What does this fold into?
Amino acid sequence: MSYVQKVLEELKKKNPNEPEFHQAATEILTSFQPVVERHPEYEKAALLERFVEPERVIMFRVPWVDDKGGVHVNKGYRVQFNSAIGPYKGGLRFHPSVNLSIIKFLGLEQILKNSLTGLPIGGGKGGSDFDPKGKSDNEVMRFCQSFMTELYRHIGQDTDVPAGDIGVGGREIGYLFGQYKRIRDEHVGVLTGRGLSYGGSLVRTEATGYGLVYMTEEALKCRNDSFAGKRVVISGSGNVAIYACEKAQALGALVVAMYDSNGYIVDNAGIKLDVVKQIKEVERARIKEYATRVKGSEYHEGCKGIWSVPCDVALPCATQNEIDAESAKLLVKNGVKYVGEGANMPSTLEAIEVFQKAGVVFLPAKAANAGGVATSALEMAQSSGRLFWTFEEVDAKLKNIMVNIYHNMDDAAREYGMEGNYVAGANIAGFKKVAEAMMAHGIV
Ligand code: NDP
It folds into this structure.
């Protein structure tokens, strides 16, 4: 049995009932095979065994009181996965589906993603099974304050710097930061995605969506192509989806479909993004509303059907495992040429195989959605230097980072004889630096 297989078997035995973690670890470790063959010293140092075991897992109780005086208890998590190349960095997710398996899969991916940015940040992730949907601002505030009342003792600007993710946007980051500052009496860059009035960076809101489109644009450019006139389907209508749509449209694409967790809209004349923003960002309402406001558009209940809408470029930007093999086959049949993952692990392993076999250019999440964390690291740099860069400055740095990531993963795939396989390329390019740092640190 190969070293990689041995570590994977052991991981599944030691961590039963963690299917998402198994899925991410399988994808990642399998692609390390040629690297560990070239570096037998890694096995001797049990490097992979250490790589898949988080440095620290923190689980805690989050009690809070609703507007009617009812008491609730949620679970809180922070997985500090790997700090070999810098302080832990990764988002917080508030969603009822959150459990340890999901936080661990996200944390593992984050290590490589952060390394790929070329910036000095380690990997971590956290969150809660709390559902902000349908809660009042006051309830969300009380929840965030309770969450931070435990988390504050484990984080710090040089230790662990959380950010937003699903269900954690500007409002939640504000409440979390306010409570940290109150307890610690420190106004420091301990969270990123902060508001502009209290140390945030321009472009952070747009960063993941814009970054995804910058990388896809580079992939198109390397094939003498461009976004102009391309039909694009984007799943989700949250932070990543909205700004991916904005940038793709700015580059001349025709975005024809989007969804939220209830259903999808199709607008063959091109999605009116101002209407989507009004519904999702301002009113926090359902995307169904779009069809009642924009003539000629349609609403369909359920999400999966979105992948039957013909497109040249698909940008899944909602959540994990939203494209299965069946949806992938449908996309291929309808002529998709590029898939860029805005969400984390939106394609199942089987779906990825379908895309790769069909010659679709597949840009995996850990590379394609790294723009968010890269801009968070730029926010950290501005915080420590007490600097404030312009929108243009940050945007230019973001674009540069995304283009570099594309070429680094392309080069790594070639170096190991897997040209065009960006899953392997991204994993290997991200792993190289982390592995080198871990080896340099000795057995820790
Ligand atoms: P948001 O909460 O802003 O938006 C999430 C969107 O996806 C919403 O439209 C939501 O619908 C939809 N959605 C969530 N869960 C499901 C589900 N189970 N089925 C169908 N639709 C669903 O999150 P973000 O845009 O920030 O994050 C989206 C993805 O991108 C996540 O995978 C996240 O980890 C990843 N990501 C985000 C980064 C960031 O900077 N924000 C950085 C890197 C990755 P509804 O409105 O109904 O809730």
Notes: The first helix runs from residue 3 to 14. The chain has a mean pLDDT of 97. The pocket of NDP is lined by residues 164-167, 208, 236-241, 260-262, 303, 317-319, 342-344, 369, 372 (CB under 6 Å). The two ends are 26 Å apart (CA to CA).
